[in-house]
Fold this protein.
Amino acid sequence: METDAYTAAFEAAAWRARSYRGVLRVAGPDRLTWLQGLLTNDLRPLAGGGACYAAWLTPQGRMITDADVLELGEETWLDVPARLAASLAARLDSMVFAEDVRIDDASAAIASVGIYGRAAARVVASALGAEVPDAAVTPYALHQVDATAGRAVVLGDDSLGVPGIRVYVPAAGAEVLLDALKGSTPALDAATARVLRVEAGRPEFLVDMNEDTIPLEANLEERAISHTKGCYVGQEIIVRLRDRAQGRVARRLVGLVIDGGDVPQAGDPITVGDKAVGRVTSAVPSPSLGRPIALGQVHRDHTAPGTVLQVGSSSPQRATVTELPFRG
């Protein structure tokens, strides 16, 4: 972990190229109505411009992917895991019937960079050579600006638990943006970004949640699901869990504070005595808490804050379930 970049993400700003995420471009006059019937969040407020977080589910209520939805007025972008972008584009295309909707994987054409820290708005404005309001760090606030690197989309980003801004630019102009950032702010490496993300209690798709996950198991109810919109794929399962099971699912993602000095590994068992009750999904050394912390999927009977568990197999360490996020 880069200590300087970690500190800068709180006190000033640090940046990270988001090559691990891709962009699907959805065009056509029917796109929002069509996406409204697929995704878990309500997209109607986005008409004319806006953004939100959502999930795409199977009819059984399990996640196909998560996505940040950016409505730009003439087309809609879906920010998705890069390794899934091509297959997701093809799968979405197969869902189009009579609707006037077109989908393509624009990951090679659109680059994105995240800038995190109190000075994020100022740093982005300087790097883009454009006016960027301080309020641009508001989560999912969306602005389109004319910049040195070309037309840029600016999105408020709280995914690391600190004020942040995500900038999307044409791939041809990405080097201009990166050169400006390299001259003024430190880069966040993957390990440091992971520390910030885990401290913020944010699950990552394909890491802490996957195709077997129901959104409620990853604590996505408030962020990704609208309970007032019309029908969407998988809604019946979500409503049944909410209304009949009072939100009780088989397992939940929890935060764990580790008493020992060793950072667990992803996949390590979580146990009570000799009984396995879950597994670690992400673990990091936390500078904020001064000890290792982890996210893990745990059986619902052992998810209450204060519950004492063990993590690891050969030399289990004591771990205590804690409220998320680990830091406010």
The two ends are 21 Å apart (CA to CA).
